[in-house]
Amino acid sequence: MKMESDLNRFRKIVRGKIRSGLRKYIANGDLIARQGKKNITIPLPRIDLPQFQLGDGEEGGVGQGEGEVGDEVGQGQPQPGEGKAGEAPGEHSLEVDISLEELADILGEELELPNIQDKGKKNLEAKQYKYTGILKQGPESLRHFKRTFKEALKRSISSGVYDPDNPIIVPLKEDRRYRSYQVSYKPAANAVILYMMDVSGSMGDEQKEIVRLTSFWLDIWLSRQYKGVEKRYIIHDATAKEVDQNTFYRTKESGGTLISSAYNLAVKIIEENYNPAEWNIYLFHFSDGDNWSGNDTNECLKLMDNVLLPISNLFCYGQVESRYGSGQFARDLTKQYGETHEKVIVAPIKDRDAIMNALKIFLGKGK
Question: What one-character DSSP code corresponds to residue 256?
Fold first, then answer.
């Protein structure tokens, strides 16, 4: 019991450390490289406390050594290797593995995020198999080997043929036991996230890294809310195409920007693969705000009004600041939908430190 109590206390300390440094972890890209399939390794600061150490008894004690009564007590002479660089205690890091689910819970607690009210549970059902007992008949794939052997042993002992010096147990047909199960249907919610990013010449490496970090934490939270999450990736300049995750974050193009090309491709992907009545659809678009013309912006707004907004849970636009981007598209969206629209959310992401605020804006409505 004491060990369990100490473990729970340690976990509380770890959660507190992670929460207090969450903004730093969100802005730190190294954390993504530490991600496993179900866990993530987080380095926590640790300071080694000084301890008393016994000497060899040859260096004297208090009041001994050179000097006269009344002389000022000094700090002694520095030894080789000592100096300003060695005056502070050494600081080390303690690496702690926590589950991605627990990390999502910490994110939700710190940002005060509401749980998402999804729209797909009433329409999707997943089969669940629960083993409820043991039967004397059933398929061989469900044979319970331990219970079968136990029945054979009982029969052998009761019939007097069991030899402890030569314990050979051969199960007969009447010894066989099989697992029984019940099938239940539980509402299941699925979600698809469509990430769209401007990869034109005005989007540099740092802007793409900000998008990568933001997407990582969006994945963490949405995967905690839904059992099944699919992710699709669209890049665009003047034209759009679907790519894999690695290409999404590493591609660099040049030339102009037509945002509507990405929105049209998103519509096509959804229509071909995701029934809006059964899927929770999330759209995240990242850009520095440049578009080729006002006519294309009008085309984007039509696609949003007529197709994308009616079928999606959220449409989130993150405007990443760059020295070449005008930032006009965010202003156009705000002018069209205001700052309190039910589904359209616009967030500026000036730098890495602004990612945490953007996450709060994107996910704060619980959609």
Answer: -
Contact 200, 292 (CB under 8 A): no
> Which amino acid belongs to residue 150?
K
CB within 8 Å of 118: residues ≥ 6 apart: 189, 191, 225, 226, 280, 313
Structural tokens at position 207: 């802007």
**Considering Cα of 87, then 88, then 89, then 95, what sign does the dihedral take?**
negative
Q: Read out DSSP for 100-113? A: HHHHHHHHHHHHTP
Whether the CB-CB separation of 357 and 107 falls below 8 Å is answered with no
Q: What count of residues does the chain have?
A: 367
Q: Where are the beta strands (DSSP E) in 199-356?
A: 228-236, 240-243, 279-287, 314-320, 344-349
Rounded distance, CA 341 to CA 303, Å? 16
Give the tens place of pLDDT for each residue, 174-215: 889 998 877 665 545 578 899 999 988 778 888 888 988 898
Contacts of 255 (CB under 8 A, 6+ apart): 200, 201, 237, 238
H, E, C per residue of 276-337: CCCEEEEEEEEECCCCCCHHHHHHHHHHHHHHHHHHCCEEEEEEECCCCCCCHHHHHHHHHH
pLDDT value of position 69: 64
Residue 365 to residue 113: CA distance in whole angstroms: 8
**Structural domains of the chain, ranges and CATH numbers in brackets:** 1-47+91-112 (no CATH), 125-185 (no CATH), 190-363 (3.40.50.410)
Higher-scoring residue by pLDDT: 99, 126: 99
- Mean pLDDT (the chain) is 79
Q: Which residue's entry shows tokens 């990242």?
A: 286
- Determine the Cα–Cα distance for residues 23 and 351; give it in Å rounded to an integer: 12
Q: For residue 285, what are the β-bridge partners? A: 196, 317
CB 285 within 8 A of CB 270: no
pTM for this prediction? 0.64
